[in-house]
């Protein structure tokens, strides 16, 4: 699945508040309210205890998204409890389903009561960069050895406000058994993808080479945009000027349309939504799909036999370039938070090398580390995990290389790319006219024309 991955939600908000009692440290010279030091009674072996002798407990409100893999939030909960005890901080840790997080955040920010620390998807966090709502974090970026591709999440036109936490890659799922039957190598390019699909396509037995769709959602838009870009064309430039109408882009949308006109996809693919391809692959009906970790998680728990027949590979290269697909999660701090210093302390506590590495591993390869130094570990060298790490490389931000702002979300939300390809497939529209329609709609959004 493309960046707009399906919400992997838990049934309810997990709200975990830690108030770890820490015994007050007595001292023979404990002060009270900043006054003179008190003197212990000569009749007592123990020093007198002042009500103010124990350090005052501070607070931290930390909102996290609940992950599909429950071990992640359990590990985070345990880490928060350790932090609470070690630093004498009362931490309110709340894990919220991704589908609910944006609404709750908007309400909290509107009320002037945001969390001190937020861990969320990059595209959710980025909307709070404007209007001076977040804490600038360039100093924190310098403290850790972030992968260069991870640093892209931090960038916004206004400055650096997001601290990378982990990559959430999308991958290419391929039926390994079908390749073996036809003695085919795993596909590495878009041309390979089509050739493999043609070779394994078997409509008479209700099996199709490709599980691609054109209905509303991020999956279709992500696939078509990736094709156009790997053919050598950026849809917009770094300033937001629309640059999509090129001969290379024309060839790319012709290629995407051919997947459907040549009947390499099942009936219903033209109207299929973002869950359609999951179902098609899990039902054993298609040979290749692009998706996020949701298919992998479903196979692990429900269809291990299908998982054994599946290869997990990076997205294919085009004639000119190759791009990964997916997104990332980030930390942000709200400047109206009341406990920013504690938020920074927890970030330091979080990036402990052993804890961080083990936390990412608990996500079972469904997320990849944003820090250098993990790729060659035993966990990431396992065949079932190596593909996920590879898929995390070259992930580009939403709307790249254009400005990281709301316009990129708008063009996806309007399904501009998938509607254009649908017009070729269903209405036999000339591909050149379909490309001109893409250009016109992108200019309407990006250039207000």
UniProtKB/TrEMBL annotation:
Low complexity bias (residue ranges): 29-45
Domain of life: Bacteria
Annotated signal sequence range: 1-23
Span list, region Disordered: 29-52
InterPro entries given in the database record: Bact_solute-bd_prot1, SBP
Keywords: Signal
Pfam families: SBP_bac_1 (PF01547)
Transmembrane segments: none
PROSITE patterns, alphabetized: PROKAR_LIPOPROTEIN
PANTHER family linked to this entry: ARABINOSE-BINDING PROTEIN-RELATED, DIACETYLCHITOBIOSE BINDING PROTEIN DASA
Record-given protein name: Extracellular solute-binding protein
């Amino acid at each position: 699945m493309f960046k707009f991955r399906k919400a992997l939600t838990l049934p309810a908000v997990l709200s975990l508040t830690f108030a770890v009692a820490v015994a007050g440290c007595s001292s023979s010279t404990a002060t009270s309210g900043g006054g003179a030091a008190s003197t212990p009674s000569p009749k007592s072996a123990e020093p007198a205890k002042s009500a103010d002798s124990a350090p005052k407990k501070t607070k931290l409100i930390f909102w996290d998204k609940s992950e599909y893999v429950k071990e992640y939030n359990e590990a985070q909960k345990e880490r928060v409890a350790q932090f609470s005890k070690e630093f004498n901080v009362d931490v309110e840790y709340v894990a919220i389903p991704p589908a609910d997080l944006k609404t709750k955040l908007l309400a909290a920010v509107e009320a002037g009561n945001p969390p001190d620390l937020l861990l969320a998807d990059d595209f959710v966090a980025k909307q709070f960069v404007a209007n001076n709502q977040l804490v600038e974090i360039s100093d924190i970026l310098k403290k850790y050895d972030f992968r260069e591709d991870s640093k892209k999440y931090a960038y916004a036109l206004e400055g650096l406000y997001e601290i990378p936490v982990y990559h959430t890659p999308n991958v290419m799922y391929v039926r390994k058994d079908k390749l073996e039957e036809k003695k085919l190598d795993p596909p590495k390019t878009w041309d390979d993808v089509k050739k493999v699909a043609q070779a394994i396509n078997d409509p008479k037995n209700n099996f199709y080479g490709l599980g691609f769709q054109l209905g509303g959602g991020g999956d279709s838009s992500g696939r078509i945009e990736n094709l156009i870009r790997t053919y050598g064309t950026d849809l917009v430039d770094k300033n937001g000027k629309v640059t999509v109408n090129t001969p290379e882009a024309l060839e790319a949308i012709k290629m995407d349309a051919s997947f459907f006109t040549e009947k390499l996809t099942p009936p219903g693919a033209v109207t299929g939504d973002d869950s359609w391809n999951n179902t098609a692959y899990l039902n054993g009906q298609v040979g290749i799909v692009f998706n996020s970790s949701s298919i992998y998680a479903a196979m692990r728990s429900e269809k291990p036999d299908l998982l054994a027949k599946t290869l997990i590979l990076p997205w294919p290269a085009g004639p000119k370039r190759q791009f990964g697909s997916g997104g990332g999660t980030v930390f942000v701090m709200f400047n109206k938070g009341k406990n920013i210093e504690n938020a920074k302390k927890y970030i330091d506590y979080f990036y402990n090398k052993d804890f961080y590495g083990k936390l990412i591993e608990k996500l079972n390869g469904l997320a990849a580390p944003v820090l250098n130094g993990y790729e060659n570990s035993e966990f990431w060298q396992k065949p079932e995990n190596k593909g996920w790490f590879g898929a995390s490389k070259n992930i580009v931000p939403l709307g790249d290389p254009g400005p990281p702002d709301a316009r990129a979300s708008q063009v996806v939300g309007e399904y501009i790319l998938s509607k254009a390809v649908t017009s070729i497939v269903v209405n036999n529209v000339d591909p050149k006219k379909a490309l001109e329609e893409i250009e016109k709609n992108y200019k309407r959004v990006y250039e207000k024309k």
